[in-house]
Amino acid sequence: MKEKTNKYLIVALLIGVVFHSSAIFFTLESTYDALIHMFFAQHYATSWFEPWNYSWYTGFTVMGYPPLVHQSIGLLSLIGGLKFGMFSVAIIGIVLFITGVYRYTLMITGDRNVAGYAAIVSVFSSSFVETLHIFGQLPSIIGVSILMHCMPEIYLWIKSGRIKYLFRSLSLLAVTITSHHVTPIFGMIFFIFPLIGMVVMDVSREQVDSYKDIKFKLFLSTFFKLFKRIISFGAASLFLIIFCIFPYWVNSKANPITQVPIPHGSRDNFIEITSSGLMFFVIPWGILFFILPYILYRYYSKRYICFGLSISLLIVLGTGGTTPIPLKVLGETAFNILTLDRFTLWASIMSLPMFGEFVYRLIEGDLKVAIQQRFGNVYHRILGACFAATFLFFAGFTITLGYFRPFQPQKINTLPLVNFLNQDQHDQWRYLPLGFGDQMATLSSQTNAKTVDGNYHSARRLPELTTRAIERLENSKFRGMEGIGSLQQFLTVPEKYNLKYVFSNDKFYDPILYFCGWHRLSLLENGIMVWEKLNVAPLPKVLPKDEVPLYLKLMWGIIPILTVIIAFIINIQSIFYKALKIKAEVKPDFFKFVVPYKNFPFKVIVVLHLWIVLLLGVIGYAMYDFYMYNATQISATNVVKSYYDALDYKYYEKAHAFIDPNSKLSISQFMLETSVADGILNSYAKLDAIDIQVIKSSDERATLIAKTKWITPLEIINKDYYHEAIKRKGKWYILPQKQPLDIPPDQFLFDNTTSYYKQGRRKITTQQTYHEDVLKQPELEILSAKLIQYKNEFIIIGELQNIDNFPADVVLKSTLYNHHDKVLATFNAKDVIKHKIMPKETTSFKVNFEEISWLKKDVAQPTTFNPNEFTPKNISETPANFDIQSAGNVAITDFYTQVALSDLVIERNHLKGTLFNYGIQEVTVPELLISYYTAEKELLYVDNYFLREGVRVQRKQYFDYELLDLSSCRIILSSLENCYVNGLPNGDLARTIIPKRNKEVEKELLQKVKGKGFSYIKIEMNNYIGNPK
Amino acid sequence: MIKKALYSVLPVLFLFLFVFAASKIDDERTSFRLQTTQDSFVAGKPIALTFSTPSLSANPQLFLIHTYGKTVLNTENNNGKLVYKIPAIYRSKTGVVSWYLIQNQEKIMSGNFKIVPNDATPTILENYLGPPSLLTGTEHFTMMVAIPTDSYDNPKQDNTTVVIKDQFLEDITTTERKTDYFIAWKNIYSRTKSGKMLISTACNATDSKEFETEIQPSPGEDFKISFSRPHKFADGNQITTLETSTILDKYGNIVGDGTLVTFQVTTQNNILLKTYAATINGIAIGQLLHPDHKDTYTVKGYVTGIAESKPVRIDYNPLIDHFTYKFTEKNRQITVGPLRSFMKQIVPDGIKVELKILYKKELIETKIIETQKGIATFYLLPPFYKKSEYQFEITTLGVTQKTEIKKYETN
């Protein structure tokens, strides 16, 4: 009989291609991984055989990821650009997946109708939708799809022993290996082993009358009969796994992953962290979870018993940290490296044949008959409708998730950035994007400029990055302690990495940039602020790289594409025959093992019903719990919590809705009062934790204290707020808080200041700057420099003055030496210095010597984040000497000095003062530099303090600073001997400018205090303007 | 073993072969004579070395050592005459060129000649001036360096005259300098007046472009300060403006714009307050908020370590000498005010009122509230203040009043 084309498969392919390929244009670019693959593809498109890439980190090798998908995108990009390549490969992936499910199901069930149904449901399977449209894991999809294509061939080889099947299967396996390394390795265990079990079962079945008759002895003897074929396939595939991506294995050995585990949602406890549970369990399972008993029932039938064991293990492993089993099964290392969501993905893919079978039986098979007989037609229809609706809902929900709850910052137009990097030789330095999300990969693939960051953390080499569990520097605020800690190190010592430009797409990082000595250069037309650091040398012309032998380069460049070509040649004939039905093909062996779909067991229907009722119960309870927890005005605690949540996300309208309506506070007034208060807490803080305690409550009224913890780029801030809540008409509201009433003296004011401008190159040229356009470096003088020991830490402190007529940007680097002049530590002044100083302005400074944070594993990592916290460099010897290299460069912005210290009270070891801003710019973050002096007016210590709120124009801001106890602080060395300014000894030039410095006058500027270990202090102000006007 | 022997024998074998071959060719030792007598050439002009030899077949090579590098020249034996043409790139660069006539790997003759700058070509002047800014005075100088070259970028012979000219205000100075080791230079000393100085050079018929250096004022000298204010009351709201006299350097130039002046205020209680201002045209204007209590400020201006002013004294008169307060709502609400100012007007909003809460003479807490319409209201929430009695100390506008002990209900 001539075989007809399977119309279900055609339908599945048509719908699948149309549905997914139109959707990917809206989803793929905002997925987590797609852009990384595009960046890798760009690498292959430009340098096919060269595995070294300079763009990320400080250079890394692309041999850390199987190259086939990247190379394919790279090849296709030569036709229509990178995005064309990526979308084409994605569409190929979709086709491969649908056909793969079809062939896999055909093999499992031997029924073409069922396989067709499975192909259709696979199109909307939520795990596939999620993997493609949310995660963008193209290599994973292609890998698993080809593996599914490969499985019937493996079956047939073991069953029939015909050599052509062996070649076919191996050729396809090679493609899987070169597209994704994890898939074939785990695929062996979870897919191919059970498959072998099934073949053995089938061969045994041929010797007896039914599956029931297969006893273990028979199974074992059949297994040994087939052992040769199995072992030959196993050996060949092992060889392929090693050979096809041999350079990968060589590289893994040469550069073992030193990265500390980076937290991943799939390892969370899904019950505690519900968002991870949603992403990594609920969505990938989707509707499948409702028919899980059926899937297990089918897979635990004798023929599929091995699949049953495999899927059970996959289900358990997919639960991540919810149960302790995955950790025990995988061991600590594997558990921390693998993303466990892939187990759920495989489990769901493995379930698809049974899902297809279930749907087939529900729609036109024995299940339909059974239900209709028992419960009637209407019930069957309703059930079917509910089932279909839930199924489509999951697919729709998954594909639109990224739209309603964006995982990425808004799409960034990278053209202005690319242009910026190309102009004026800006690409001769490294850059750092902040707040770009995965789109940083897009930028990297469009420019030659290099960044210190990157988006493939297994390839990192800098210990500054590998020791930290941060994904990227770019989104370091989400990684609290470690994130901002390491970002601060990069920003403090940028010259180490030739890092000169920061592209900030997130205002959050602005204060730390300013206080580390960076300044704003320009706002690009896409709204991204460019920050620049002076005194950073360009990248050397020749950058270091790890050379690999030529044969590895050739293998890497040739084998992957070759596997595709070979697979194509070997399989093309059979594909043609199958697709065009030119020749009646012999029906493959697995068609012999079709199960007749008759008499759906009623027990299973009952179990399914019970299971669904149970699931609905759990879901209902979870939703009720969720509602009670999140219902905004159901209790006083909830309203306060919701109020802070709304403020944190800047949903002012929502926050205003929680304010007592009887207080007649209009939204405009509320907005005015909330948003006038600029400052680190209002503009740059992220609410990290909130603990609400009810102090007193009655039925109608409650007094609460909100203990909040805010993460700011500068420090952690704990602040308690008192609130009163009131119940009106069953809803709780917050009573509005009092606002400051201070009235500025003047309605209109004017201000004259000196502004500066640097021409840069006066002549338009691509040459280096002309000699006469190079400005003289401003002359600085280090007035004092001391090596001190405080709390077991060695610190350099001192004072510095700009003695030039030009304003200066100050970079100050200090090095500690032992008795033999061996360098012990070196670091730059971070935020305890005014980096931008006016002519004749002085600043105190402090250099802490930071260890690359938490480099040593045994150093306990603090459990809570404090950006101020760092591991002091463990200096085993007492430093005997130090030097200071300071450099001045002409600065033109950020000198706001118009803040006066207008009141000060010193009581009970506290400095309580008032700052008054008399200029016309709003100071967003005022910093106080407090210098401590001994009774002899010798500098002893320098500390800093950030005010939580800003100082508005002509307004006051109060501060309360607790003085330190410096009785243990000891000056080790006080010397100006090894201090250098712009490379020349300190003072040499200064004496020609100021022949006689009046040292006594400086002492008049010190405030007498009664302190622990000190007698005088000096207060200086460093003002950060967040929004210069 | 055989291989190893082969490896050691082969080189020896090759050497023999080579020696044999060489001796086969080198059958005649010929003599050569340099015909070119000139030993100094002008850059850019063709240079050729001519040799004569009795042999009609000898064809030695000329090995050249030149600043640009080493090379070997070949030529043809034209009836016993050999002409070696020096390549153009070598001809245009001055310096000593050594040559070696080599035949069959052996040096036969050697010698050298000189290439001198081509004065016939137009002179090119290369100039460097630095630093681009100076301070006024007599010790500071900028250095003008001129390197006259011929068109081929060869520095001129020493003792070439270069004219260095500088202009400052009305003065134009012209100096002649001779090149020494290729360069002519002059230290141009700063002046006592600030301004822009233009400098240029000339050599032969070539003039340089203009170079500039900025003469900037030196650090300032001591100065005076003065103040002005809308009224003399300590209302905590108005602003006192502090102004320096024009700060000049020791030559009478106005100091550079942006020079930072610190105004330091010493209060009656020896508390140091400060405000900063940068100069414009030598004058820095700082602002200071009036205190909210009677005080006498002593203000002094500093350019740290460089210059200072004499102190000025500013007296602020008190706005009030006493105020009223009342207790309501079971003593839980304390209302201070209304506070009235010097013309009996209500004080501006935002005057700080401080409430010290004492329990048995022990300070429990300090609350600060700002006045609105002259009134400040404190409310002691029962959950926070559970004691049965409290006493209060209220301070505003520099006046402190202590209340009597108030009793509270406790539950």
Walkthrough of the structure:
The complex is a heterodimer of chains A (1029) and B (411). Chain A is an alpha+beta fold and 1029 residues long. Chain A has four domains: 7-407 and 552-595, no CATH class; 415-527; 628-734, Nuclear Transport Factor 2, Chain: A; 778-1024, no CATH class. Helices cover 44% and strands 18% of the residues of chain A. Chain A contains 31 helices and 28 strands. In chain A, the strands form seven sheets. In chain A, strands 14, 15, 16, 18, 25 and 26 form a six-stranded mixed β-sheet that branches. Chain A has a five-stranded mixed β-sheet with strand order 4-3-5-7-6. In chain A, strands 8-9-10-11 form a four-stranded antiparallel β-sheet, with helices on one face. In chain A, a hairpin with a 2-residue loop joins β25 and β26. Chain B is mainly beta and 411 residues long. Chain B folds into four domains: 33-116, Sandwich (Immunoglobulin-like), CATH 2.60.40.1930; 124-216, Sandwich (Immunoglobulin-like), CATH 2.60.40; 225-316, Immunoglobulins (Immunoglobulin-like), CATH 2.60.40.10; 325-407. Chain B is 7% helix and 48% strand. In chain B, strands 18, 19, 20, 21, 22, 23, 24 and 25 form an eight-stranded antiparallel β-sheet that branches. In chain B, strands 10, 12, 13, 15, 16 and 17 form a six-stranded mixed β-sheet that branches. Chain B is elongated. Chain B starts with a helix and ends with a strand. Mean pLDDT of chain B is 87; it is low at 21-27. At the A-B interface, β19, α31 and β27 of A face β9, β17, β20, β21 and β22 of B.
